[in-house]
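Bit of a strange request maybe. I'm writing a small parser for structure token strings and I need a real example to test against, not something I typed by hand. Could someone generate the tokens for this chain?
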Amino acid sequence: MDNEALKIPKKKKLVSLWVESEGQVIASVFLQMESDRHSGEETPQEIFNQPETFMVVLNEDPQEARFYHVARIIRIEYHEDKQPEAAGELTELACRLTLRDGSEVEGVIREFLQPEHRRLYDYINKAELRFIKLYESEDQVILVNKDHIVRVLPL
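Reply from user aminoacidic:
Good idea to test on real output. This should exercise your parser:
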């Protein structure tokens, strides 16, 4: 039997994970070629916001598969090739997050939100999001685990 025919095609995406007790880990995550939620490929935000307890990554050095407990991942940083297109008005919310480890991250949340839910308070309290997405620049993204956020300041 051809095992290759049973594999689901995925794309490797290089990310920088900040993990409790390990610090920075350079690894690749695996994205499906098509998302269930929008046109185009799956995004890192989608896979880190899934309900699974553990996330599989391919560590860069040494090259090995690892399973990380998602609740122990503080943040994920990566380069975004392009933003997924969607209909509606884009909401931009600038903020600074203070994390449990004392670090701070600053950026802009860019989301297509319903008019009645366009406040920063509404976005950070979305129950379905374990990781919130901030843009440090036009194409540099930080996903922050809400369980590690101590304070949010609007900018």
